[in-house]
UniProtKB/TrEMBL annotation:
Keyword set, alphabetical order: ATP-binding, Nucleotide-binding, Transport
PANTHER family: ABC TRANSPORTER ABCH.1, IMPORT ATP-BINDING PROTEIN
Protein's recorded name: ATP-binding cassette domain-containing protein
Domain ABC transporter: residue ranges: 2-237
MF terms (GO), sorted A to Z: ATP binding
Length: 240
């Protein structure tokens, strides 16, 4: 689905990503781990082309995103990719519901009715129905993060990108978000998430370990069951 070919990225002559290559297959669940400052967020934003790369290319279903005209790229991102950030970036002057439907209204691909219906279904599924009219500041961190997932899903994306989706959540709220991600992936959604929590990465089928802007190691898990212990062991070996 996505082929990342030797991408590099530098800021002020400082190399942040260095020749990174890998592939995301449809239905994959990719976890991205690594020390703080190693380039995980930069990698996520580069693949999704929210940020340009200095070298290499990103092919999305064979199409070179680095060469796509900006207008087309924006639409591509809006309709094919969903994003969830560490601190749910929701607009404070809009209700939760209106925040969720906003990317749908901007995409203008479907009627408002269809978008609203999908938003309601998503909210129900994420167990936050009833919070439609609340202000962003009137819900818990976990509820807000689940609302962000609804928003990311509003245009039926083909891939969901998440940057530390549980970074600000307590253990129970983390479990809820994890259960949702697992469910979505079982239904076929392709997921790529940055996380520093082994508990989150243990849900992935493939984990990339980024160090100094490079993929220092990559592990694929063959079993479908939770592989937290296997992951812990791998991380221990990598960091000691
Ligand atoms: N816009 C920018 N301008 C200059 N340097 C940047 C910019 N964005 C990121 N960097 C630098 O690039 C490096 C990688 O940053 P990045 O945010 O990708 O790290 P990360 O692995 O996501 O870290 P964390 O786990 O702390 O979120 C860091 O050294 C950071 O200071
Ligand atoms: Mg980061």
């Amino acid at each position: 689905m996505i082929k990342v070919e030797q991408i590099s990225k530098s800021f002020n002559n400082l190399e942040i990503l260095n020749n990174v290559s890998f592939e995301i297959k449809r239905g994959d669940f990719v976890g991205v781990m690594g020390p703080s400052g190693s380039g995980k967020s930069t990698l996520l934003y580069s693949i999704s082309q929210m940020d340009s790369v200095s070298g290499g290319r990103i092919l999305f279903e064979g199409r070179n995103l680095s060469e796509m005209p900006e207008v087309e790229l924006s639409e591509f991102r809006l309709t094919k990719m969903g994003f969830v950030f560490q601190n749910a970036q929701m607009l404070k002057n809009l209700s939760i519901f209106n925040n969720i439907i906003l990317p749908g209204l901007i995409a203008k691909k479907e009627t408002v009715h269809i978008i609203r219906e999908r938003a309601s279904k998503l909210m129900k599924r994420m167990e936050i129905e009833g919070l439609e009219e609340r202000d962003v500041r009137e819900v818990s961190g976990g509820q807000l993060q689940r609302a962000s997932i609804c928003r990311a899903m509003i245009n039926n994306p083909e891939i969901l990108f998440l940057d530390e989706p549980t970074g600000a959540l307590n253990s129970a709220a983390t479990d809820q978000v994890l259960a949702i991600l697992e469910d979505l992936n079982h239904e076929g959604m392709t997921i790529m998430t940055v996380t520093h929590e082994p508990r989150v990465a243990a849900k992935a089928k493939k984990v990339l370990y980024i160090q100094d802007g490079q993929i220092a190691a990559c592990k694929e898990f063959l079993t479908v069951t939770d592989h937290e212990r296997e992951l812990d062991k791998w991380l221990m070996e990598l960091t000691h």
